[in-house]
Amino acid sequence: xxxxxxxxxxxxxxxxxxxxxxxxxxxxxxxxxxxxxxxxxxxxxxxxxxxxxxxxxxxxxxxxxxxxxxxxxxxxxxxxxxxxxxxxxxxxxxxxxxxxxxxxxxxxxxxxxxxxxxxxxxxxxxxxxxxxxxxxxxxxxxxxxx
Length: 146
Hints:
By secondary structure, the chain is of the alpha+beta class.
């Protein structure tokens, strides 16, 4: 899929790390995201520092309403993770438009493969062109634990 839905009026996307509300991002992820519950602020700050981060912001207040983090070399590979849309703005089309913009930014780098893991949002990602791994038996993981 190549369609890129637009953000609703009054919102904008930025990759400027200076705009991130790291305290808000940590709060969202450590208390409301099943994959990051209990993550320490120090660990979250290190993750942000080593990644390409995207935020969605209200244009008037500047307040952050969504976050996504991408681990990438900006050439061949990317891992999309820590995607979160504030509960107060869910259902407005922000998440889909946001993820489409992230996808398109990664495509502009010439990245060949973008991976992600999700427990419950397959439909959202499928609408944006993501699919199950064609050969999952080729993939392996080394898990150190929490």
